[in-house]
Amino acid sequence: MGYVFLGLSILLGVSGQLCVKMSNGFKVIKPTIGAFGLFITCIYFVSLSTRYLEVGVVFAVWAGLTIVSTTLLGIFVFGESRSKRKVFSILSILAGVILLKLV
Fold first, then answer.
1. pLDDT value, residue 100
2. Count of alpha carbons within 13 Å of 72, Cβ hemisphere only?
3. Cα dist. 69→27, 30, 51, 54, 62 in Å?
4. In Å, how far from its chain's centre is CA 60?
5. Could you give the angle at which helices 2-22 and 29-49 cross, rounded to 10 degrees?
6. Residue 23 CB: number of other CB atoms within 10 A?
7. Could you identify which of 38, 48, 61, 74 might form a hypothetical disulfide with 16, taking C-beta atoms 3.0 to 4.6 angstroms apart as the criterion?
8. Contact 5, 48 (CB under 8 A)
């Protein structure tokens, strides 16, 4: 059940990041409200996942996969830059998450 909560928190966190981007610096009301609601709900599910999984694993996986997902959406949805350094960084984060899960 912990992984279900963790997965939901990652989806909510990434959705919140997208709302932040669309809010134009919190000047557009609906995405601003969406961002705050999604982040509050995201943290709630993170806290639920810590009931079942180690807190270090939860936050490392949550942060890593949220960063990777948000970066990829930035590249493919918002047309942000794609460089070798950015791709290498994403792969490094993914490798860290995988290695952490193997321990």
1. 82
2. 13
3. 24, 22, 24, 22, 10
4. 11
5. 160
6. 18
7. 38
8. yes
Under 8 Å between Cβ of 62 and 10:
yes
> Does position 101 have pLDDT exceeding 90, yes or no?
no
Compute the CA torsion angle 99, 50, 12, 96 (nearest 10 deg).
Answer: -10
Full-model pTM: 0.89
C-alpha 24/C-alpha 40 separation (Å) is 20
- Residue 61 and residue 97 in contact, taking contact as beta carbons nearer than 8 Å: yes
Residue 55 predicted with pLDDT over 90 = yes
Q: How far is CA 27 from the centre of its chain?
A: 23
